[in-house]
């Protein structure tokens, strides 16, 4: 028996991937540490054939500085991310994962970039993320750091929300379907 839904979806994703190669797009995965932003971001970037960047690792010093002094988060850390995205947009576009947890930070990044950003929010409860940490499915993080992230988190309203309880393949497919519908 032929699965016509799968064939339709496969055609839609392939059309989208063709269009993505002709256009430069920016996909930014956000959420608290431990939600799988980097793993999923890398898989999405591979499918789109664009570079992937984990801004939390690339700009670790700026992020640590920013967490100590919340006023500087809009300066050094966001400036570094903005410069990276702006440079990559003119090449092929890119996929970026970062812990931009506040609405103000996302608005500032979007304003400074000047290109449309496709935001993806990696949605999960404290318990789900904590379980991922305990199972070693994500980078090590202290419980107090996780609590701090959840306290600071302002859930984005204008982002695709991807449930972290889904399988990695389901998360990637959800993101690609969203992009295919939007640009296809």
Word description of this protein:
This protein is an alpha/beta fold. It is built from nine helices and five strands; from the N terminus they run αβαβαααβαβααβα. The chain is globular and about 40 Å long.
State the distance separating the first and last CA atoms: 28 Å
Strand content: 5-15%
Overall 3D shape: globular
Rg result: 17 Å
SS content category: alpha/beta
CATH topology (fold) name:
Rossmann fold
CATH-assigned homologous superfamily: P-loop containing nucleotide triphosphate hydrolases
Low-confidence stretches: none
| CATH architect. name | 3-Layer(aba) Sandwich
- The counted number of beta strands is 5
Secondary-structure element sequence? HEHEHHHEHEHHEH
Which terms summarize this structure?
alpha/beta, single chain, globular, five-stranded parallel sheet, 5 strands, Rossmann fold, 9 helices, 184 residues
Précis, in short:
This protein is an alpha/beta fold. The chain has helices at 4-22, 37-48, 55-58, 60-68, 76-89, 103-113, 126-134, 143-152, 168-183, and strands at 25-30, 52-54, 93-98, 117-123, 160-163. The protein has a five-stranded parallel sheet.
